[in-house]
Specification:
The protein is α+β, with helices and mostly antiparallel strands. The protein has helices spanning about 20-35, 50-55, 60-65, 85-95, 95-100, 140-155, 170-185, 195-200, 210-220, 230-245, 290-295, 310-320, 340-355, 365-375, 385-390, 415-419; strands spanning about 40, 45, 65-70, 75-80, 105-110, 125-135, 160-165, 250-255, 265-275, 280-285, 300-310, 330-335, 360, 380-385, 395-400, 405-410. The chain binds one RNA strand through helix 3, strand 6, strand 10, strand 11 and helix 12.
Length: about 425
RNA sequence: GUGGAUGUAGCUCAGCAGGUAGAGCGCUUGGUUGUGGCCCAAGUGGUCGUGGGUUCAAGUCCCAUCAUUCACCCCA
């Protein structure tokens, strides 16, 4: 029988690494709370049609990367490859707009895409993100971007940059794509194969090509979408930039930033990790004013982003931002022999009830071995308890950091280790 | 889906003009009676990814296969 192991592209988060995740999750929660966003949790699988309609039938994610299956009832289901569609579905299903005209939501959870794994890309991965549903105004875009920036700042990450762009409304974009097609017509033959295919398919994707020849052509001949926006689109973008500047957030305007998903309108943005490998997008998002209505919901403007947690942790590791795993054990109980256990039990239980982190030896090891173990676990205090101690009510309490041992009453343990 | 790289103890790796496995770290125990971090010692631990082939003999050469990894594609 083959060795049991995780499926390709999936990873265990090991017990000695989990503190990184918990640290990140704690900061996320703090930031989301500060902006009064509420968490929403949706199922990991949904009807396949939700993603086909929401993300775009011809996008790579839907056409070749989804984990799709039929359940025993014959329903066509898919493990979610992204979360915006699920949030939109939840919004529509439960008529959020009737409860309030604006919803500021956040989420965190695993996603699934059947891609070839590489650095910063796995088949099960995690994203957190936010969706502001209801506001059409640029201050909503600004606040969403501010939250993204605030998270990286608060985590101490230095090597990242924010890129923003506006791809206008659907109508403006349609006109721009015609212009782009016209301008590039004479150079089509010079483009790489995939770009030639994109020329006829989704011409905006030409901006994403990493081929240097294509890049040169685009730089020299492609007009900027920013010159082809409607007056309203332009005003929206200008106000957004002004608000970001006012908040002290640095950004680059990159007119080639056209996100991969089909549902974006107007604002798009991306945060790139500058110390990562090929997969350097830490966070991507934008405005999607038509998604809810496209899914048969009420016309609802929206803006949000999604960010990869594994990539964030990679970036933080690259900057050595995780402190060594701090002390996890307040008090290490070292019983001298098993006859004392019944006497020790109520003491331990009482301390745990008061939220102290108490480890009691379960391996019946020697005192030397217990001290070694306590040291390895970075226990703050060790209590040595034997029959003498139980009889007299005086136990030996050792401060591991100071290497000092004192005698104290059992009842005083709490106040001593508190200080 | 397409390329390249790699697969030897829990971890990081060495071994190679082919002769039946090593280091460091870790882990366990000990250095006398109920006490850590340093040091010393002993011990634990691998059918050298798997299956074939060449050879008297293969971790070491050849083929296949699987897995991992990096990059393309796409994206977080």
């Amino acid at each position: 029988m083959a060795k049991l192991r995780t499926i390709k592209g999936t990873h265990d988060i090991l017990p000695w690494d989990i503190y990184k995740w918990q640290r990140v999750e704690k900061v996320l929660k703090e930031v989301f709370d500060a902006y009064t966003c509420k968490e929403v949790r949706t199922p990991v699988f949904e009807q396949t049609s939700l993603f086909a309609r929401g993300v775009g039938e011809f996008s790579d994610i839907v056409s070749k990367e989804m984990y799709t299956f039929q359940d025993k009832g014959g329903d066509n289901l898919t493990l979610r490859p992204e979360l915006t569609a699920s949030v939109a579905r939840s919004f529509i299903q439960h008529n959020y707009q009737q409860a309030s005209p604006l919803h500021k939501l956040w989420y965190f959870g695993p996603l699934f895409r059947q891609e070839r794994p590489q650095a910063g890309r796995q088949r099960q991965f995690h994203q957190y993100g936010i969706e502001f549903l209801g506001s059409t105004f640029p201050e909503a875009d600004a606040e969403v971007i501010e939250i993204a920036a605030e998270i990286y700042t608060k985590l101490g990450l230095k090597n990242w940059e924010l890129h923003i762009n506006s791809i206008g409304s659907v109508e403006a974009r349609k006109i721009y794509m015609e212009v782009l097609k016209k301008e590039l017509k004479d150079h089509k033959a010079e483009l790489c194969e995939t770009c030639q295919a994109r020329y006829d398919g989704n011409i905006l994707r030409l901006f994403d090509c990493k081929n240097s020849a294509c890049g040169d052509i685009m730089r020299d001949h492609a007009p900027s979408i920013l010159d082809h926006l409607s007056d309203e689109d332009t005003l929206h973008f200008e106000e957004l930039k002004a608000l970001l500047t006012a908040s002290g957030i640095d950004f680059f305007v990159d007119h080639t930033l056209v996100r991969g998903l089909d549902y974006y309108t107007r604002t798009t943005f991306e945060i790139k990790g500058t110390a990562l490998g090929a997969q350097d997008a830490l966070c991507g998002g934008g405005r999607y004013d038509d998604l809810i209505s496209d899914l048969d919901g009420p016309q609802t403007p929206a803006v949000g982003f999604a960010a990869g947690v594994e990539r964030l942790i990679m970036a933080m590791d690259a900057e050595s931002l995780f402190d060594e795993d701090q002390s996890f054990v307040d008090l290490y109980i070292a019983p001298m022999d098993i006859h004392c256990l019944k006497g020790i039990s109520p003491i331990v239980h009482n301390l745990r009830k008061k939220a102290f982190r108490v480890h009691m030896e379960l391996m019946r090891r020697s005192v030397k071995a217990m001290m070694r173990d306590a040291n390895r676990q970075k226990a703050r205090w060790v209590a040595v308890i034997g029959e003498q101690e139980l009889e007299s009510g005086n136990i030996k309490l050792k401060n591991m950091k100071k290497n000092e041992q004192i005698e104290c009453k059992i009842l005083d343990i709490e106040t001593i280790i508190n200080g």
